[in-house]
Amino acid sequence: MTNRQTISCNSFDGVFDTFPDKAFCILSHCDTEKKISLLNLMIEDIRSKFDLPIFIFSHLYLPKNIVDKVEYFVYNRNNPIYNLELITPKMYGFTLAVPYDNRMARRRMFYHAYAHYLQLYESITFLKNQKINYGYIMNYDVPLSILTQINEYQKKLNDYDIVHFNYEEEDSMSTEVFFCGIQKTYDKIKDKLSIQNFETTNGVSLETVFKRLLTGLEFYNLGNFGETKGKAYIGTNNFDFYKKNDVTILHSNIDDLIVIPHSFDNALRKISLKNCESPRSKIKDIKFIFYDDNFIEYDTIRTQMKVNDIFHCDVKKEYRYTKMCIDDTHEIMFDLNDENNYGFLE
């Protein structure tokens, strides 16, 4: 214990308290009050159950009342999710698609994989440098029921290097929550910080790339988490990396809804939608509210979409901004004149 940092000291009694050899790492991307509330609930739950340090890693600033509750807050302003110029050879052809008129409307995905990987790299590297032996690494929005099993996961870590949940792709692991021995995990990724080095590992999804980076370690697969069927939906806010209250870049996937504006010319524009199947998929009531250049409401279009339904709506040339609501909840507002929001037909 003497090789870890002192957290309190009574110099009169000669008593030193040091960090434990285990720590929680929370990976966060909280840009709404709802997400910050989820993060706060996780911190409070950890505090009520464990006497272990908490480290938060984020691409966004967090409120002081959140930061004051943890031992370390690490902010990295390098947020490749919003870097639209980050088009690597591997990701160039990786698109989401919606069938349209015997063709496919396609739109490139935002690069979640490397953004998430940066947080994993930072958490493991930071814990290694703080002499922490075991890391409990999880996204801020995973179910708190996971915390009730920490002692069981730690027992597995006594015999294995990585304890993780299943992911649907072969030779993969869920990266939303896993438990690891820090030193051996660090040794596998320490030379893979840059996006060029990260992409030298075969695989497209982070779940595949990350596990292959750790080749040679001993893994214990906990199987599917709950009803996820191995899909990347352990957390509740997958893909919600956008600003809901401002005009923002249209995201790749919004609550399992693929949204692809596309056009033949300025006079004929379309928005194509698909309600995708997932462990949390459901019927959705969709509403588009269209505005002119001055944010004066111009028109409204509504539709209901069952799972796997596809819908196309016309976009008149007079429309400038669009607010999209799902089940009467405002999800996103985007600019119909911004070419960054558009997909293409092939």
Which structural traits does this protein have?
20 strands; Immunoglobulin-like; 4-stranded antiparallel sheet; Spore Coat Polysaccharide Biosynthesis Protein SpsA, Chain A; alpha+beta; 7-stranded mixed sheet; 346 residues; 7 helices; 19% helix
Structure report:
The structure is a single chain. The chain has helices spanning 33-49, 64-67, 112-129, 150-157, 182-189, 195-198, 206-213; strands at 6-10, 15-18, 22-28, 54-58, 72-75, 95-100, 103-108, 134-139, 162-164, 177-181, 219-221, 253-254, 257-265, 268-275, 284-291, 297-305, 310-315, 321-326, 329-335, 344-345. The longest helix is centred in the middle third of the chain and has 18 residues, at 112-129. The protein is 19% helix and 32% strand. The strands form 5 sheets. A 7-stranded mixed β-sheet has the order 5-4-3-8-10-9-11, with helices on both faces. A 4-stranded antiparallel β-sheet has the order 12-13-14-17, with no helix packed on it. The chain has a 4-stranded antiparallel β-sheet with strand order 16-15-18-19, with no helix packed on it. The model has no long low-confidence stretch (mean pLDDT 87). β1 and β2 (15-18) form a beta hairpin. It is α+β, with helices and mostly antiparallel strands. The radius of gyration is 22 Å and the shape is elongated. The N and C termini lie far apart (61 Å). The protein has 7 helices and 20 strands. The chain folds into 2 domains: 6-221, Spore Coat Polysaccharide Biosynthesis Protein SpsA, Chain A (Alpha-Beta Complex); 253-345, Immunoglobulin-like.
